[in-house]
């Protein structure tokens, strides 16, 4: 899915601040401190008998096909007002920026996981936590009867239904409203010894605009992690060549990650230069720990595609200035020549 252009930005938007409690240990990240969240509440896991001993801070449960059970979480309200929270059990997906997120309840084509967490965990639609108090919620679950490989991974997502103060921007009529959320990670696995490795595939090439690069025209490589395993420490080097083998532009990014059974479009932007129609070749190299993938693909950019993505790029009018300068110089030379000829003619008339 390609990033949206300025014309597609809504005049009002929700700015979700998603802070993950108990980040997965293999991401090598430090857990978010509750005191620094600014969300006004914290979420903590209650110890579970099926928790794998190797992990803490998030749910990592060893389960079996058809198994039932429950998990508990403790929500602490740090404010002086009652909190009304929406609760979701969301499967992880990969954003267009190449990071995992948990803020969508319905993923559609963003995930091909065999089972979605919302079909396993029966979370309450919403909960209320009184001011300056704590509440423990119990969430039952039932595993599918058919076994699965690898992991099912996502988070319990708690969204504060209250809207923060509006923030003005430098765009007329545009405001941002803060809504705060916390996510508590959850991983389900049926085998401790299952060593399913991520598998990266290139499924298509398209064009679009890179919002992170000032809406620069870009070529998008759609990548799919087709296995039920997290893909972490991902580095991608994407390069675009013309039909003569000349490097036109490239984008290199590190520390990316992909959720299991997910996809995203990696953007290789032009650096705010106009994208010309024509034949191109993509070469993309992706590395993650001890794995490496190399993809090449020839593709064509049509005039219609180029015109669409170039709408955000100012036209280069330098040639016009040079043309005007050249015309001005020619005009000056012509005027000088006319003055010279006029002077010669006057001189001859006076001599006669």
Automatic annotation (TrEMBL):
<dbReference type="InterPro" id="IPR010317">
    <property type="entry name" value="WxLIP_PGBD"/>
</dbReference>
<protein>
    <recommendedName>
        <fullName>Cell surface protein</fullName>
    </recommendedName>
</protein>
<dbReference type="Pfam" id="PF06030">
    <property type="entry name" value="WxLIP_PGBD"/>
</dbReference>
<feature type="domain" description="WxL Interacting Protein peptidoglycan binding">
    <location>
        <begin position="41"/>
        <end position="158"/>
    </location>
</feature>
<feature type="signal peptide">
    <location>
        <begin position="1"/>
        <end position="34"/>
    </location>
</feature>
<keyword id="KW-0732">Signal</keyword>
<keyword id="KW-0812">Transmembrane</keyword>
<feature type="domain" description="WxL Interacting Protein host binding">
    <location>
        <begin position="171"/>
        <end position="311"/>
    </location>
</feature>
<dbReference type="InterPro" id="IPR021759">
    <property type="entry name" value="WxLIP_HBD"/>
</dbReference>
<feature type="transmembrane region" description="Helical">
    <location>
        <begin position="319"/>
        <end position="340"/>
    </location>
</feature>
<keyword id="KW-0472">Membrane</keyword>
<keyword id="KW-1133">Transmembrane helix</keyword>
<dbReference type="Pfam" id="PF11797">
    <property type="entry name" value="WxLIP_HBD"/>
</dbReference>
């Amino acid at each position: 899915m390609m990033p949206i252009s300025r014309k597609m930005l809504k005049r009002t938007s929700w700015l979700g601040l998603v802070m993950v409690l108990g980040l997965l240990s293999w991401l090598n990240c430090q857990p978010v401190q509750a005191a620094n969240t600014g969300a006004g509440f914290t979420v903590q896991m209650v110890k579970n008998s099926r928790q794998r001993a190797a992990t803490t801070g998030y749910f990592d449960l060893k389960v079996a096909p058809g198994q039932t059970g429950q998990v508990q979480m403790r929500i602490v309200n740090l404010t002086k007002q009652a909190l009304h929270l929406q609760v979701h059990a969301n499967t992880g997906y990969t954003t267009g920026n190449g990071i995992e997120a948990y803020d969508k309840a319905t993923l559609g084509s963003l995930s091909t996981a065999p089972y979605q967490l919302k079909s396993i965990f029966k979370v309450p639609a919403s909960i209320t936590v009184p001011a300056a108090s704590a509440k423990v919620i119990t969430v039952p679950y039932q595993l599918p009867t058919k076994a699965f490989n690898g992991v099912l991974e996502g988070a319990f997502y708690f969204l504060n239904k209250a809207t923060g103060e509006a923030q003005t921007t430098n765009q007329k009529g545009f405001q941002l409203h803060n809504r705060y959320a916390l996510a508590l990670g959850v991983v389900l696995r049926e085998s401790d010894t299952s060593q399913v490795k991520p598998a990266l595939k290139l499924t298509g090439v398209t064009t679009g605009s890179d919002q992170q690069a000032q809406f620069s025209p870009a070529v998008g490589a759609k990548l799919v992690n087709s296995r039920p395993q997290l893909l972490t420490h991902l580095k991608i080097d994407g390069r675009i060549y013309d039909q003569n083998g000349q490097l036109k532009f490239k984008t290199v990014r590190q520390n990316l990650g992909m959720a299991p059974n997910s996809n995203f479009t990696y953007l290789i932007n032009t650096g705010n230069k106009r994208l010309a129609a024509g034949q191109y070749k993509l070469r993309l190299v992706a590395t993650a720990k001890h794995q490496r993938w190399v993809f090449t693909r020839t593709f064509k950019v049509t005039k219609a595609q180029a015109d669409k993505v170039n709408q955000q790029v100012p036209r280069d009018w330098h040639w016009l200035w040079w043309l005007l300068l050249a015309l001005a110089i020619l005009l000056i030379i012509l005027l000088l020549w006319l003055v010279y000829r006029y002077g010669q003619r006057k001189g001859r008339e006076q001599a006669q």
